[in-house]
Design brief:
9% of the residues lie in helices and 42% in strands. By secondary structure, the protein is mostly beta strands. It has one domain. It has a 6-stranded mixed beta sheet with strand order 5-4-3-2-1-10, with helices on one face. Strands 6-7 form a two-stranded antiparallel ribbon. A hairpin with a 2-residue loop joins strand 4 and strand 5. The longest helix has 8 residues. 20% of the residues are buried.
Length: 163
């Protein structure tokens, strides 16, 4: 099962769709001296123009990295992104590469989680989720973080995250 949420914004001919993936914990090491934390959100933004993904941005710990379409592997229209263990550090999203085939899960197939879109929450649930205390983990699709996250993750395109 997966908890994945999305929110979109469009202007100047571009649409940004941000996906927020929730993980119960983010653990770097095992044992009594384990490094990590309870709760984690990682994010992906797809940047769309003329109904096609042109860029993909991935959250990597506290920062963002964006990639042009030419560096992204796709399954149809879906960008292939991996929840990756970063050496001795914790997890983050990265683009899939040739070593990720077949997908590293019990099915060997790419997984596309069910989404809860910004306007599709049952009454009151969105506010509960956006105001929940996840410790140091933050969900970037909330009203207070969404525009800044789009700005931080934005490739060099004429998109105004604050419009």
């Amino acid at each position: 099962n997966s908890n994945t949420y999305s929110r979109a914004k469009c202007n100047n001919g571009w649409c940004a769709v941000m996906y927020a993936g929730y993980f119960e914990k983010d653990q770097a090491t095992l044992g009594p001296a384990a490094i990590g934390h309870r709760h984690d959100f990682e994010h992906v933004v797809v940047w769309i123009k003329d109904n096609a993904v042109q860029y993909v941005s991935t959250s990597q710990h506290s920062g963002w990295k964006w990639y042009p379409r030419s560096q992204v592997r796709f399954d149809g229209t879906h960008a292939k992104v991996v929840y990756h263990k970063d050496g001795v550090s914790t997890h983050f999203y990265r683009l899939a590469n040739g070593n990720d085939e077949p997908a590293e899960n019990h099915t060997g197939n790419w997984f596309y989680p069910r989404l809860v879109g910004w306007n599709g929450y049952p009454a009151g649930l969105r506010d509960k989720l956006m105001n929940a205390d996840f410790g140091s983990a933050t969900i970037k699709i909330s009203d207070g973080r969404f525009n800044d996250a789009l700005n931080a993750s934005k490739p060099p395109i004429p998109f105004d995250p604050y419009a």
